[in-house]
Amino acid sequence: MSYNRALSTPPPEPIETKVKYTKKARHGHGKDVIDSHNIRQVAGCLPIDPAGKRILLISSSKNPEHWVIPKGGWEIDETQEHAALRETWEEAGLKGRIIRRLGIFVERANKRIKAHHWIFEMEIDEIAKKYPERQKRDRRWFTYDEALLATQNNEYIQEAIRVSSLNPLSTPRSSIDAQVSPTTPTATEDLMQSETPKKKSMDGFETLKELMENTTISS
């Protein structure tokens, strides 16, 4: 997806060069980047466990029955990658490394563009029990198909999932196209095995409902 709009608040050389895993969420208070059409720019991650071929989604703070990716306003003293990693920590308690930019996706409300979402695929290295928004959201694992079903209220998230490396029909991108500044990687083979029971993937909403009831990650 191409992106040609000029930003009306172009960020300077970023002040933040490393993600700070703080106890409280950062709030922009007017620092969000917007484009020349006054459209808000949002950054977020699609957090994956490549070994388990699963995606971690969080509940929406406004609509707890809806499942979303961690995301938030890209602020003027950050890169998109930094903003995406920061929001993923604040909302989901995840640490990891970005492996590719999935694209820039349009969120619409009442047929008008609400925001542009810069979404990155992130391999999870660590899942914290304590993080800034742990009292506001649930976290749950989903297979590729289950994630598409769970995010049916957000087409732009579904678009990002479809171009991720977990799509069984996707063609891997070259390292030149895919790779962006990573943080230090660690293995994910045993990620959260003690907290999340193994489930066989099946079709249907009832199966998804059962999965969600039994795989909540303790905060």
Automatic annotation (TrEMBL):
Residues 169-203 are annotated as: Disordered. It comes from the Eukaryota. One of its GO terms (biological process) is diadenosine pentaphosphate catabolic process. Residues 169-195 have a biased composition (Polar residues). GO terms for cellular component: cytoplasm; nucleus. Keywords: Hydrolase, Magnesium, Metal-binding. Its cofactor is Mg(2+). Residues 38-165 form the Nudix hydrolase domain. GO terms for molecular function: bis(5'-adenosyl)-hexaphosphatase activity; bis(5'-adenosyl)-pentaphosphatase activity; diphosphoinositol-polyphosphate diphosphatase activity; endopolyphosphatase activity; metal ion binding. This is Nudix hydrolase domain-containing protein.
